[in-house]
Amino acid sequence: MGFIKSVLIFFYCTQLRYLVIGQTYDEISSLERQLKQFSPDLNPRLNQKDPVDVSIMAYITAILDYNEVSGTLQPVVSYVLTWRDEVRRWNSSEYGNVTSINLPITNTWIPKISIINMVRHKSIFMYHNEMEIRRSLVNYQANGFAEFHVSGAQDITCSSEVKYFPFDSHACSIQLFPEYANGNVILKPETKTFDLRFAVSNTEWSITANSVDGEVVPNVFSIVRFNITLSRNPSFLFLNLVLPIVLLSFANLLVFCIPVASGERGSLAFTILLTFIVFITMVTDILPACKPISYFNIFLEVQLFCSVLIAFCTVWSISLHHRFAENYTQDIFPQFLLQMSCAYRNSCSKQQQKGKKNQVVPPRGLTKEHCNETCVDKNRQLQNEQELHEDIRSDNIYTKDNHQYCLKCIDSICFSLFLIILCIQLSVYGIIFLYKP
């Protein structure tokens, strides 16, 4: 048994020595010179009419930025290209068992691949200096299997879809095609999805879906599309844009709660109106001018329109207040408002009288004289109320109390109307965003 172990150890040592000593500098340099003799401009096929099948796989390492206004996506993507070379292959036993070697891209054949929807540079090979080009290598196996890695930040055109802003999602794609005539190079996807193992998360955007598909037309062209879906992280914009606008919309209704005589009603209405204009300017800088328009933009425009109407109602109520103060109520519209408010007040007072008639009989402890005095007081109160109603029914006599009541009715109607409009809007948009596809 000891003899057999010794033989096995000697055998493995000789093989290891052969592998280490056999792959010498001279043997590898000799192999490199042999492979560099082939022209880098010819296809790696013995028959030049045969197409070269290039498999491609992509890794997304980061999403640097996505600009919705310009429709530009800036991802950092790494591509792995593999193909079979029928020319650059060797017998490893003739070169000291060398099974793989790296060749510079300037001395060997590599597929020229471009991006259809690139903003600036069309090619995926974006080198910034000569050193990067010289150190870019293609790995070859002895059987002719070639592998090449390239990576970089790219500017891709991507159409914006801001219909559900700030809960929006955008579908983007990186479309690759080989720049060779007559379909000499066929580009094929190696996987059906992106590899996101090395992706660094973005604070604003996240990749929620991805897929890879290809299209090949024989002897014409081939295209590979890397599709991703970007979804916005809405927390920041919701807290700093959406929520302030909703709260400001409710605050706008407080204009009708301020007494007209205070003199602060107009200033508050126009301040809130200007604030809405500032928010519209902010949203214009964020959202692109595309179709369909976002629901949030429509909501903001409706709130601006309601704010304008509130400002008009405020100015109108202030004007009525001054007219009533000067007892100038000869116009048709002020007369109509006073009559309507007085009629409503009469109907309310009649209902109160009916309620008083149904009151309980006085307690037992009261004497007859007390009952007579109580009845006399009630009769006097009823006479005073009748005289007041007769004054209200009069077409030419309106007291200060009638004017104030008319203004309060107008404020109540305006407050209720705009509150109902705001609640309906919030309910509709809540349903839209809740059940969005």
Automatic annotation (TrEMBL):
Residues 242-400 form the Neurotransmitter-gated ion-channel transmembrane domain. It is a multi-pass membrane protein. It holds the Pfam family Neur_chan_memb. Keywords: Membrane, Signal, Transmembrane, Transmembrane helix. One of its GO terms (molecular function) is extracellular ligand-gated monoatomic ion channel activity. It comes from the Eukaryota. The keyword Transmembrane helix applies. One of its GO terms (cellular component) is membrane. This is CHRNN.
